[in-house]
Amino acid sequence: MGTIVYVKDALEAVVTPDSPLLQDERYAPTLKKYAYTDSEGNLVLSWDIGKFVNHCCQANTLSTGYGFEIAVRDIQAGEEITDDYGLFSFDDEMSLCCDNGPCRRVVRVEDFDDNVARWDSLTFAAIRHLREVDQPLLSLLDDDVLTALQHDLDRDLRHADSLRSVATLRHKSEPITRTHLARRRMRQTASAVASLTPVMLTVTAVPVIG
Ligand SMILES: [Zn+2]
User: Fold this and answer.
1) Model's pTM, two decimal places?
2) How remote is the CA of residue 59 from the centroid of ligand 1, in Å?
3) Are strands 13-15 and 4-6 parallel, antiparallel or unpaired?
4) Who surrounds ion ligand 1 at CB < 5 A?
5) How do residues 134-179 score in pLDDT, each as one tens digit?
6) How many angstroms separate the alpha carbon of residue 167 from the centre of ligand 1?
7) Running DSSP on this structure, what letter comes out for residue 163?
């Protein structure tokens, strides 16, 4: 818990909502399947296998108000790394079928407002562990994000509730394209992820993510 597991680094491909690629049949299906939508409405296509991370209603990683994703509980070696697609911007519904625990069955646009308090609770608890565990991705954070994070963590020690809400990721405009809707469900174990991408190196470095 507390390990940063995803950073939108400089190698991520960013496609603007008005890009002709979205009308290009050679590229549009790939974007629809694998890209996520950021708060500016851009599609972000991961260069590594981060793009294969699946949704789970009880996800073990979540996006934070600082943009990076964090492990919100300990993740065992071999356990699939999952995310909550409700945190991203949708303009349509997506059917879900989680294997474990209660499932929302559908991701809806309304999920963001319905779940933001719960996500904040989970991510704040994880961020408060951030300094206690190894952070191999920390150097990939933008300087301004790192500065804000350090400032907020220091302040949070004195004044609780000083961390940035994930509400900052809320989409700033109406989404133009549909993303994630056909995001492929592909089983990825933590060990498989780690073996293929240095961004997920934490997973192999320690059997249990702090
Ligand atoms: Zn579910």
Assistant:
1) 0.80
2) 9
3) unpaired
4) 57, 96, 98, 103
5) 999 999 999 999 999 999 999 999 988 899 999 988 876 544 334 4
6) 21
7) S
